[in-house]
Design a protein that fits this description.
The chain is an alpha/beta fold. About 60% of the residues lie in helices and about 10% in strands. Helix 5 packs antiparallel against helix 6 and helix 7 crosses helix 8. The mean pLDDT is about 90.
Amino acid sequence: MNEIIVEKFVGIDVSKSTLDVCIEPAAQTLHVIYDEAGISQVVCCLEEIGPTLIVIEATGGLEVRIATELASLGLPVAVINPRQARDFAKATGQLAKTDQVDAAVLAAFAKVIRPQVRPLKDADTRALDDMVSRRRQLIDIRVQEALRLGTAASRPLQKSLKQHIAWLDKRIAEVDSDLTKQLRESDVWRAKDDLLQGIPGVGAVTTRTMLAKCPELGALNRRQIAALAGVAPLANDSGKHRGKRFTWGGRADVRAVLYMAAVSAIRCNDTIKTFAERLKKAGKPPKVVIVACMRKLLTIMNTMLKNNTPWNPKNA
């Protein structure tokens, strides 16, 4: 008689101090402190049962430790957007929200939706991601201080703001130096950095952000990478109604640098410039033109890294 294999799905709700685990279909739960001992307890439990899929919410980086630990042992881990989990909970009528309830929702999400398991960032990529994020934070603070300087009336306040801005400039320069050093010391990253910066309109900030925030670049097809970045047009049709296509979701950091790169490429990259002019002549609105150029630029980057080929206007 053939043995019946029961699929097991796991949801893990991560908070700063605790981990809540729910295992379906047995409705088994586990609540541990989020430290080495707690992680070890969760890992041992899940290794023993051999789950079909483990789903964890992205929680501002808190999930990285447990997700990395599980993935390093070959367990199938999918880290999902919190909005997906919350929308799923509402759709199933689960309006309450506690750590235990969230873990159960994630387990149900794993069973019903079965999100794709993607490789997690390795330690080097996480370090690069942290540095890119820190650079963005410093720049945001500098912008705020510059705005305050523009309205500062007293000299002591102006002096304080100028000193802080000068300090921020130094820190940003240091982070830029560290980022360049980190990229150039890695053979893999150096090759990718060189390929991407060979595209007219794509600079150092764009390549660093793409490598850190979108490590899937070069590993997915053009539709998947466009959806991941949030530049894929989404349909809005119903019956005979054909609504306007729109873009939504995706990774905001990636879209931000793609926007700036596309604006630059429209001016200095003949391929993107010709593409943009063709869309304008077709009557497309300016925003649609820019988003289409962002998507084309992203597709070019993806293809170049996938095939390990340098920039070629003819191929583009």
